[in-house]
């Protein structure tokens, strides 16, 4: 299916409003692990605005994936986080709702913890509840070092997310 479907659309730029200067190109690519996926890019010839995105070609059924982290090795599990997927770590009270995430991304569990740490540090700046902030950052740090067990949950509305255990073959 890769490359068989290619389209190019010309429209008005959503940023500068220039008429017929915004070119959107998209193709369907058969991604490993994901299947048929729309890969698109767009550019305004007038103002230079650029964007890109990927999205599933077909929708799957909603599903919930769980991975229990017991030690440092488990932090290397790969997360393929599809668009419209919530990422939760219930034991630590952490959540990224799909409205806060990019359209989709690939990372490790350690990478997700780094995102949670950055979010916690940003929300703690200038706050009075310093003790609560320190506690939350300490818990995330312990998890990142593999000293705290927890569960990562992916709630995927389209069924495109995956969790690949450390050392598992990737096809």
Task: Characterize the structure shown.
The protein has 171 residues and is of the alpha+beta class. It has 2 domains: 6-56, N-terminal domain of TfIIb (Single Sheet), CATH 2.20.25; 63-164, Sandwich (Jelly Rolls), CATH 2.60.120.1040. 18% of the residues lie in helices and 39% in strands. The strands form 3 sheets. A 4-stranded antiparallel β-sheet has the order 1-2-3-4, with no helix packed on it. The two termini are 17 Å apart.
Rg is 19 Å
Number of domains: 2
Helix content: 10-25%
- Please report the first level of CATH classification, the CATH class of the largest domain: Mainly Beta
- Indicate the CATH topology of the largest domain: Jelly Rolls
**Percentage of residues in DSSP E strands:** 35-45%
Number of strands: 11
Coarse shape: globular
Question: Biggest sheet, open or closed, and with what strands and sense?
Answer: 4 strands, antiparallel
Distance between the termini: 17 Å
SSE succession: EEEEEEEEEHHEE
Q: What is the compact description of this entry?
A:
The chain has two helices and eleven strands. Helix 1 (109-124) packs antiparallel against helix 2. The protein has helices at 109-124, 130-144, and strands at residues 6-11, 22-31, 35-44, 50-56, 63-69, 78-81, 85-89, 94-96, 105-108, 150-156, 162-164.
